Known about the structure:
By secondary structure, the protein is α+β, with helices and mostly antiparallel strands. 65% of the residues lie in helices and 8% in strands. It contains eleven helices and five strands; from the N terminus they run αααααααααβαββαββ. Strands 1-2-3-5-4 form a five-stranded mixed sheet. The model is unreliable at 1-9 and 375-381 (pLDDT under 50).
Amino acid sequence: MIAESFGRWNPTRTWRTASSVDKVRLYTRQSFFVLGIFFGIFGGITEAAMHRYLGALFVVISSAAAVVAVDRIPELGGTRTASVKVPAVVMTVAALCSAVIALPADDAGQGPYFWLAMIVPVPFAALVSWRWVMLGAAVAAGVCALAGRPEIGILVACVAGFMTFTVQLSVWLLRMVTELDEARGAAAALSVAEERLRFSRDLHDVVGRALSAIAVKSDLAATLSRRGDDRAAQQMDEVRDLAQESLAEARELVRGYRSIALASELAGARSLLEAAGITTDIRGSADALPIELAETAAWVVREGVTNILRHSSAQQAVIEVSSESVSITNDGAVQQRAGDGTGVNGLRERVTAVGGILEVIHDEGTFTLTAHFSSPIKESR
């Protein structure tokens, strides 16, 4: 319930530093406080002027109880730690006592009824449906009519209806402001979560590929070194270059300016896969895809190559680029796992963001990762 999150006004805040919700909350609560105190004082003075001192006392008690009840109502910025029932009961009993005292008097005039009709509906209108408040006002008006004072009954019904409408409108306004503030907070939290997800996805793509490549080339360099092959130094130079490239990409990732090129990814994929002893066939060229899709296709190639190195014992790999798709196929795929990994899920988000569909096929030791950028396809089973 929204009312449970209304909370109380924080007195340590000034009006300038308070949020919009706090300002509306304070204004609403203080308005009803002022109404209760104002009508209680004037009602008490009026009754005292008519020499109904006991009735005046009950009007003041009813007003004070109404103020306490308002201070405890969550819908008006109060708190549930203190019960609102006690002040509500005290207010009602005091109002009935004041009305009963004035009803038989011949010179009652409007008596305390106008003041009570302004005071009593305030806490009740914030607690229950307006129908119940108006039912109570109708009962009070009926009692006045039966007592021979129909004009007082009409006055009570009209004033109580006006106050009920005013209070419920104020509560509705406060609820809407609170919901909008919560929605704004939720939107901000969602933006932060989306940015964290994007960063984790990009970090996975950058670091995952770099570490896989470094592991493959380091293993190859170690093997060549044990044989006394001079090519070991060349492989270590490539490991160094990969580490420096990854460091630069990580820095660009933090700055938010990183992008990758499809042509360089294709060349890097051939070099990396062949260094791992995987025969690689690249069909098509980077120029086949529109510029706006080239970066996404480059991420597909990077993730596909990373998966080959991590999750397969492939001997052959085919990378195919066309005007509508990019696909990576390899043999030696391990048994399919339940669900997709983090990399594939992040890649699917990238492809979907440009209006494409990512298709994953695992069939008898062959794994195919395809990004379609034009027409939809049926999901492969």
